[in-house]
Write a structure and sequence with these properties.
With 166 residues, the protein is α+β, with helices and mostly antiparallel strands. The protein has one domain. The strands form four sheets. Strands 3-2-6 form a three-stranded mixed β-sheet, with no helix packed on it. Strands 4-10-11 form a three-stranded antiparallel β-sheet, with no helix packed on it. It has helices at residues 2-33, 86-90, and strands at residues 46-47, 50-56, 59-64, 71-73, 96-97, 101-102, 111-115, 121-125, 128-129, 154-157, 163-164. The radius of gyration is 23 Å and the shape is globular. 22% of the residues lie in helices and 24% in strands. Strand 2 and strand 3 (59-64) form a beta hairpin.
């Protein structure tokens, strides 16, 4: 009777070892190669957010490191964000920990941050808080351009820090 017990114990240990090896290998691969889709437009802090530029039929405008369009909102006055709650769900702020970095035609002297009501740091450009649009699902897409959501228009931002109102 001890032999069947040893065989069963050996089979159990082997199964556990194989399961552990299989799960660590697959989770490591998936987490490093493909970020979850929901992470692309969230306001979760990014340690050194990079702001660059992209040129389309609208002209040259600001984008994040993944090429997603960045917007300013006419309802913001100064560097304080007036977008929170449902607004910030549809228009997530670009947040960062530390100093944002410039790329492309972006002027590093125009980059900064401002403190949001929740304590996070939102990236600003020429004093304007920067946002994504939830409806933009691919790099360079600008479906939020001219949107009048939440009481004022949203515009992509030129490297000079001005709204592109095309």
């Amino acid at each position: 009777m001890t032999r069947p017990f040893h065989l069963a114990a050996l089979a159990l240990v082997s199964a556990l070892v194989l399961a552990a090896c299989g799960s660590s290998g697959s989770s490591g691969t998936s987490s490093s190669s493909t970020p979850p889709a929901s992470s692309t437009a969230t306001s979760s802090p990014r340690p050194a957010s990079v702001v660059g530029t992209k040129t389309t039929s609208l002209g040259t405008f600001l984008v994040d490191a993944k090429g997603r369009a960045l917007y300013l909102w006419d309802a913001d006055h100064g560097s304080m964000s007036a977008c929170s709650g449902a607004c910030a769900q549809a228009w997530p702020p670009l947040t960062a920990i530390g100093t944002p970095k410039a790329s492309g035609q972006v002027k590093s002297s125009l980059l900064g941050t401002t403190k949001r009501a929740d304590g996070s740091r939102e990236v600003t450009y020429d004093g304007h808080p920067l946002y994504y649009f939830e409806g933009d699902t691919t790099p360079g897409q600008t479906t939020g351009q001219g949107n009048d959501g939440f009481g004022a228009p949203w515009w992509v931002v030129s490297p000079a820090g001005k709204a592109i109102q095309n």
